[in-house]
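User: My advisor, Dr. K., asked me to get a structural model of this assembly before our group meeting. I'm new to this, so sorry if the format is off. These are the inputs:
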Amino acid sequence: MGIQGVPATKVKKRRSLLWSEARDGYLFILPWVFGFIIFTAGPMLASLYISFTRWEIVTPSVWVGGAQYVKLFNDDRFWLSLYNTSYYVFIGVPLHLFFALLAALAVNLNLRGIHFFRTAYYVPSLTPVVANSILWVWIFHPDWGLANAFLEWIGLEGLYWLQDPRLAKPALIVMSFWSIGGQMVILLAGLKGVPMELYEAAAIDGANWWSRFWRVTLPLLTPALFFNLIIAIIGAFQVFTQAYIMTEGGPNYSTLFYLLYLFRAAFENFRMGYASAMAWVLFIIVLTFTALQFMLSDRWVFYEGDVRR
Amino acid sequence: MLSVNSRTAKELIFAGFWYVVLSLFALVLALPLVWLLSTSLKTGGQTFLMPPKWIPDPFVWTNYPEAFRAVAFHEYFWNTIRIVIFATTGAMLTASLAAFAFARLRFPFRETLFILVLSTIMLPSIVTLIPTFIVFRTLGWIDTFLPLIVPLWFGGGAFNIFLFRQFFMTIPLELDEAARIDGASNLRIYWGVILPLSKPVLATIAVFAFIHNWNDFFEPLIYLQSPENWTMAIGLRGFRGLYHTEWNLMMAASTAMIAPLLVLFFFAQRYFVSGIQMSGLAGR
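Assistant: The format is fine. Below is the predicted structure of the whole assembly, which you can bring to the meeting.
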């Protein structure tokens, strides 16, 4: 709608309306703007600055240039924590997503009482991570735990789940499968969004179950899968509580995750410069992966709008 | 006739097969919770049996009062509730105000600013943690609830802004225009027209804020030091430090932390589902 042919007084009124609208718009987002400056942008820059200093809180900070980064890259334990975290991210997240997809497909079946199964699969993901961690320490207990009771029941020998450096990370990943419910519900919403006509058209064309899934369901689900993947990877890079409570980083540093190492540097040893350098390295890693995924997403993520364009 | 019968038979087999698969899977997922409950009601000696006994004999209901006596869970509960109330109020007010601007008012750089909001969702919070901690320390706010409350009065979290905006976009713009013709200000439209229509999203955000504060471990761990200020999550960790071999008591305490969430879930199920589905919309 243009303003041509409207009397001058009305134009003036319209302009002032727009101005007041813009003024109110800025006013309404002002709390967020302040928050962004005080709690996001400011601290980000500050932590970059701190990462170039040596600072133990009680002593004055000393500018050391890139020394913290040099120290970081020569620190075996830093590389170990990065390896442990990458293991958790790149093995745990895809498997977690795969199981969530299977669960979503299963509870999308058109069966009576399916709602019960949806609820049953979702409920475990509600358990708070602290309670979850304590429960699973007990489940993984080598002598009296449920996991070994099951293994012995099927005739296998029990394992030292959290006491064996080779098994501790896989054990934490197995534990994470228990809470696939959140992702399942997001994927289920994606499945519900697939238009029925597409299935019907595919069925008329003689497509069987498998090719319907492969050609119709999965492409239309890629936006939801993409979103889940990004958020899950960012979250998994910051895995902390499980290791803090269940294994304290052990055994033999096998669950020393990145954030746990950073936490110890910052809040147990008060090496703020070192910890800030770690924070920035993690930020760069996560940023790189997110950017990479957005770039690669062109190849596999299918947006409905693309067809219309 | 025959073909109809064979078709229903095939459907029955199909349904039967899936019910078996779904039930097996449900059983596997339910076992840890059953194990939790069963352990929480056992005597100390009965927790150390292999193969385990599923049904406690006798049922030791007193494990629960004993766990609550050992550690001040009632205080942790009220601390958590207080944080939830003050943090959520701020989040709901400032996030909805910002979302109203992003959804219904026009101003220069609106889209750019909104992309900035969205990009902060993907920011790993660790990169801002240390300077934020130092600011709160300088203000003397360590070991108070303020670090867990005050930031939420400044925008209320990018994700909440997103959820509010998503919902506000579905409300017809004509309502604003009608109110504007009647001389209502934008603040009046926000408060008197849009918010009253937004009860579902307000409920969703309240529910999620409750879950977040109830479950959050990292921030309370850093900011709350003396036991009288602990939240449920930190309190449970402290309990594990004290009673690390008394699995029955530990499971009773864990159950006490999980149960309120399950109760909330069963009363507010539709807000859970709508909230999660809306969060999935971010992928579109």
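One thing worth pointing out at the meeting: Residues 8-50 of chain A form one domain.

User: Perfect, thanks a lot.
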